[in-house]
Amino acid sequence: MKNRKMPSSVERVMEEEDLIISKTDTRGIITYGNRAFIAFSGYSEKELLGSQHNIIRHPDMPRGVFKFLWDVIQDRRECFAYVKNMAKDGSFYWVFAHVTPTFDSKGNIVGYFSARRKPASHAVAIMGELYQSMLAAESRVAAQDACNASLDLLMKVLSDKGTSYEEFIFTL
Ligand SMILES: Cc1cc2nc3c(=O)[nH]c(=O)nc-3n(C[C@H](O)[C@H](O)[C@H](O)COP(=O)(O)O)c2cc1C
Predict the structure, then answer these.
(1) Residue of 32, 53, 119, 160 with fewest CB within 10 Å of its CB?
(2) Pocket test for ligand 1, best of 25, 51, 65, 66 (most atoms within 8 A of CB)
(3) Helical residues (DSSP H) of 51-119, grouped into ranges
(4) Is 74 touching ligand 1 by the criterion CB < 6 Å?
(5) H-helix segments, 75-164
(6) What CA–CA distances, in Å, run from 115 to 7, 64, 112, 147?
(7) What angle do CA 109, 113, 117 make, to 5 degrees?
(8) Is 20 exposed, middle or buried (0-12, 13-18, 19+ CB in 10 A)?
(9) Domain residue limits, the chain
(10) 160: helix, coil or strand?
(11) Which string of DSSP letters, residue by residue, matches 135-158?
(12) Residues pairing with 100 in the sheet
């Protein structure tokens, strides 16, 4: 289902009280979505459950961001990220996501959980620009080097600012 629709310039804006929740298995297959998740995505619950989470991936998102996200959560840590998503009709919506691993009683990862809030508009403006430059860095190299190229750029931006990823994300 990925990339069948064209992205449009129509934005859906989250409200302060909105909380978008989804859960996945260990491979990123959607196992749960709350009402807000279903409403913002524009897909039915039936279409979402069992689909890869990239069903709402927006082409403006650099691949490096998702590599970073997966590296962190597979390392059993939580990850915060600004994400531009694409709804079924091609419209887009920005979220501030908190993604965490879920463990069983033996400490094995059994899936992942993401809770998303409305992002501050000035943070979206900064992250939108940063993601554009990461995307440009990806387009300048061969596909297999794209993630590293955009992550190198992200790390350079952070080191130039003398900050860590987490610190940067929370001081926007
Ligand atoms: C719990 C969880 C939530 C996720 N939420 C999103 C999301 O909202 N939007 C998105 O594009 N990718 C999300 N992802 C990442 C996707 O699994 C996937 O890595 C990403 O869409 C890039 O897909 P691709 O590499 O197939 O292009 C999430 C992953 C997990 C584990």
Answers:
(1) 160
(2) 66
(3) 63-74
(4) no
(5) 121-139, 146-161
(6) 24, 21, 10, 24
(7) 155
(8) buried
(9) 20-119
(10) helix
(11) HHHHHTS-GGGHHHHHHHHHHHHH
(12) 113
**Nearest Cα residue to 113 out of 125, 98, 128:** 98
User: Of 4 and 11, which is predicted with more confidence?
Assistant: 11
Tokens in use for 152? 């190198």
Residue type at 44 in one-letter notation: S
> What whole-number distance in Å separates Cα of residue 152 and Cα of residue 134?
9
Residues 6+ away with beta carbon under 8 Å from 39: none
Contact 99, 82 (CB under 8 A): no
Reported as a single tens digit per residue, the pLDDT across 101-149 is 999 999 999 999 999 999 999 999 999 999 999 999 999 999 999 999 9
Q: Which two tokens stand for residue 79?
A: 């990850």
Q: Which two tokens stand for residue 101?
A: 């691993």
CATH class, 20-119 region: alpha beta
Is 54's C-beta closer than 6 angstroms to any atom of ligand 1? yes
